[in-house]
Amino acid sequence: MADVLQKIATNLYQAKTDAVAELVQEALDAGMAPGEVLNGALLAGMDEVGRDFKAGDLYVPEVLAAARAMQAGMDVLRPLLADSDIVSSGKYVLGTVKGDLHDIGKNLVRMMLEGGGFEVIDLGTDVEPSAFVEAVREHKPDLVGMSALLTTTMTQMKVTIEALEKAGLRNSVKIMVGGAPVTAAFAEEISADAYAHDAARAVDVARWLMG
Ligand code: B1M
Q1: Ligand 1 centre and the CA of 102: distance in Å?
Q2: Highest-confidence range of 103-117, 128-142, 186-200, by mean pLDDT?
Q3: What mean pLDDT is predicted for residues 50-70?
């Protein structure tokens, strides 16, 4: 069983998109839980990619190719995560903040939230504060989630909260923030309602915010 997880991680690292999708299916057919495949293979493989990118052993095109392979695996897992155990629900507007193109973590958060029974309106990446405001006006969500992966873009979370305040919409939603450089202290500093460290915790925090 652990062998197939290692194989998925290795194929992800090598950006073998089809092999990743096939092996994820194989792991599920062998009875593995979707969460186990997600954490033990896809996230583990992407972690290794991140480490080597940081060390300068991998370059942007290779990282992008690995990210595509990860998405292929996530496409197989997605319906299963979405069908699992619906406990609570709420409407959730989610996006990666202005200037930031990273969406793998945000997509994971979306998948996990959908798995938790939330209706997610995904605004994508590089989302202007005004687009968050428009989405809140249009969809009237219970929650707004912002993701940022860059220290230079996490400041857009504050700008977006201020835009919601200015539009008179701040008190109509609970705001959750997350992403690698974001911390609980930062969330408090910008007056967000909550911080979630990872996609799994994002579901717990969303449920908690829904009361
Ligand atoms: Co980028 N990049 N990148 N990159 N990239 C990082 C983030 C970096 C740490 C790499 C490094 O230097 N070590 C660094 C940021 C440094 C910093 O600001 N401190 C960096 C940089 C510098 C850049 C560029 C500026 C590089 C350049 O062009 N010179 C550039 C910026 C582009 C832009 O956004 N404007 C850039 C570009 C890219 C790619 C396009 C090549 C690609 C993104 C592909 C894509 O997303 N479609 C990419 C990637 C893949 C990475 C790394 C390698 C991996 C990120 C990732 O997907 N991780 C990353 C290094 C690393 O993290 N080790 C790096 C896996 C993902 C599952 O984790 O997104 O953290 P993560 O999500 C987690 C949690 O953070 C949390 O849940 C998820 C897991 O459960 N979470 C939330 C995330 N959002 C949440 C929201 C929530 C709650 C939890 O509530 C709403």
Answers
A1: 5
A2: 128-142
A3: 83
Residue 84 and residue 96 in contact, taking contact as beta carbons nearer than 8 Å: no
Tens of pLDDT, residues 178-211: 999 999 999 999 999 999 998 767 888 998 999 8
* pLDDT, position 187: 98
CA of 149 to the centre of ligand 1 (A): 5
Probe target for ligand 1 pocket from 53, 68, 70, 102, with the most ligand atoms within 8 Å of CB: 102
Q: Please, how many CA atoms are within 13 Å of residue 162, restricted to the half-sphere of its CB?
A: 8
pLDDT(34) > 60: yes
pTM of the model: 0.81
